[in-house]
Write a structure and sequence with these properties.
The structure holds 2 protein chains of 2 kinds.
Chain A lengths: L1 H8 L5 H5 L5 H31 L5 H4 L5 H36 L4 H16 L2 H14 L6 H27 L2 H9 L4 H31 L11 H12 L2 H33 L3
Chain B lengths: L1 H9 E12 L2 E12 L3 E5 L6 H8 L7 E6 L2 E2 L4 H9 L1 E4 L11 H11 L5 H14 L15 H13 L5 E5 L7 H16 L4 E4 L3 H7 L2 E6 L2 E6 L1 H6 L4 H8 L2
Parallel strand pairs in B: 3-8, 3-9, 6-7, 7-8
Antiparallel strand pairs in B: 1-2, 1-4, 4-5, 9-10
Helix pairs in contact in B: 4-5, 4-6, 5-6, 6-7
Classes of the chains: A mainly alpha, B alpha/beta.
Chain lengths: 281, 250
């Protein structure tokens, strides 16, 4: 088991280095040619797209000048804040439910395991939008009237929790058996064994996967328009209908989403590197 | 009658007719043995003979299918708080060290005393530091396990077991995962412990260590105890052919 840990710790080469050997002179030439050709194709496409936009008048300054106004940015900023709040809330709630599902999933009681597996499959299999409709349309009929924030946050959280539960479980299962045995041999009870020894290690293994899940949650919050919650997408829609600026607003908003998710991915990679680095001698 | 009572009182570990199966494989066959207070029992035998399994059944890391395990007069319960309490009294040192990889060396030693015995943090740390000093790794107290050599990790594992003030310590091939130059430092710590009167059950392939430190040697093969005796007798003149073959191959 120790050997396994060492291997994990000393893994400095990326998966690409393992899958492909270093290219020789012939391969290098081929790679260069392919790179030039694909760049050219991409460039042509880009030019075509811009040309098409130009023909349809989408590059007209009136669509773009709104981004020179401070109010546009303030409005989008408010939306962004709403997105961040919803994503953060949904992530935390999802993590809480997932923790419970995971604990049931690894429980020695068959009933709990059964319930957990059912719920995990249920939440993984149903599209987020259906959960939103449930909280938006169905729940109020039964007297459950939630603020718009929870109408988007809860369904997004529920829709993610199955996957998060499985991610957490995979983390718990990758903790070597010897860690359990060592804790058991010291007379620790299940609770402290799990939360003081096993889970902290499991959590470190799955940080990158959890961050990827946050990206999904963040993108799911764009359903906020359904429940009239003012996230960035909802505010973008308002801008679009006010200024008729479909393309420019969508493009700008897309870039902001990409930037956020890019940062999240960077954090995830850094977390993975830190984790691997920490195991190193 | 009186004598058996006395005997069962001084036996820290006692196994009575223990049987264990892995599926249809009979890995422990009617094992009975007792370990007295202060005794060093070394279990040797070829791989697959069941010696590690025997060691692991003593604190119920492996369940048993028949028989009884009695720790200091108390039958080993099958689960729950009582089992945890009994396990807390028996230390264990593993082949692969199994230090808690996310915690510092000091925390590794402190964790169980604080969590199980409810020793206050300050006291636990002081004791941990003195134990780390005793096994010679006090300088590493604030590192994480992966930063230590195998020999150092195993000495920390011994300190971690000692921190619980165990009635006995089980060693499951404690030097088998170590580079040759590190085996000595671990065996030295174990020899010292034996001298101080710690009750120890040791599964090992280190025959010299067995000769010098053991009070009693058990030779196992195919799930049974074939021979039992003082190391000087066993190593000089093994009674069974199987033991002669085994020792001859070393």
């Amino acid at each position: 088991m120790m050997r396994e840990e060492n291997k994990r710790g000393s893994r400095t080469t990326s998966i690409i280095d393992v899958l492909y050997e270093a290219p020789g002179p012939k391969a290098r030439r081929k790679i260069r040619a392919a790179t030039i050709v694909s760049m050219a194709v991409l460039l042509c496409l880009l030019v075509l797209i811009i040309l098409q936009f130009y023909k349809n008048g989408q590059l007209d300054p009136r669509y773009w000048s709104i981004f020179l106004r401070k109010t546009t940015w303030t409005f989008l900023g408010e939306g962004l804040l709403g997105t961040v709040k919803a994503a953060l809330g949904a992530s935390l709630v999802s993590f809480g439910i997932a923790m419970l599902l995971m604990l049931w999933r690894i429980s020695s009681r068959k009933i709990l395991r059964g319930i957990s597996v059912t719920l995990i499959e249920f939440t993984r299999g149903i599209p987020t939008l259906l959960f939103i409709y449930f909280f938006f349309l169905l729940a109020p009929q039964f007297g459950l009237k939630l603020p718009a924030y929870w109408k988007i946050t809860l369904p997004v959280a529920i829709s993610a929790c199955g996957v998060v539960a499985e991610v957490l479980r995979s983390g718990v299962q990758s903790v070597p058996r010897g860690q359990w045995e060592a804790a058991m041999s010291l007379g620790m009870r299940w609770g402290s064994m799990f939360f003081k020894v096993i889970f902290p290690q499991a959590f470190r293994y799955v940080i990158p996967a959890l961050i990827s899940e946050i990206v999904i949650v963040l993108k799911d919050t764009t359903f906020a328009y359904v429940v009239n919650y003012a996230d960035m997408m909802q505010n973008a829609r308002v801008l679009i209908s006010n200024y008729d600026a479909l393309l420019s607003v969508h493009l700008v908003v897309a870039v902001i989403y990409i930037l956020i998710n890019y940062v999240l991915n960077k954090i995830s990679v850094a977390a993975a590197d830190g984790r691997n680095g920490k195991g190193k001698r | 009658m009186k004598q058996t009572q006395n005997e069962s009182h001084t036996a820290v570990i006692e196994l009575r007719h223990v049987d264990k199966f892995f599926g249809s494989l009979h890995v422990l066959k009617d094992i009975s043995l007792s370990v007295q207070k202060g005794e060093v029992l070394v279990i040797i035998g070829p791989s697959g003979s069941g010696k590690s399994t025997l060691c692991r059944t003593i604190n119920r890391l492996e369940g048993i299918d028949a028989g009884e395990i009695i720790i200091d007069g108390v039958p080993m319960p099958e689960e729950g708080k009582e089992l945890a309490n009994l396990r807390a009294q028996i230390g264990m040192v593993f082949q692969s060290f199994n230090l808690f990889s996310h915690r510092t060396i000091l925390d590794n030693v402190c964790l169980a005393p604080m969590d199980v015995l409810k020793v206050p943090r300050k006291e636990a740390r002081e004791k941990a530091l003195s134990l780390l000093e005793r096994v010679g790794v006090q300088d590493q107290a604030h590192k994480v396990p992966a930063q230590l050599s195998g020999g150092q990790q195993q000495r920390v594992a011994i300190a971690r077991a000692l921190a619980m003030n165990p009635k006995a310590i089980l060693f499951d091939e404690p030097t088998s995962a170590l580079d040759p130059e590190m085996i000595g430092e671990v065996l030295d710590v174990m020899t010292e412990l034996a001298r101080e009167g710690m009750t120890m059950v040791i599964v090992t392939h280190e025959m010299n260590f067995a000769k010098n430190v053991a009070d009693r040697v058990i030779f196992m093969d195919a799930g049974s105890i074939l021979e039992e005796g003082k190391p000087e007798d066993f190593f000089a003149a093994p009674k069974t052919q199987r033991a002669r073959d085994f020792l001859g191959k070393l």
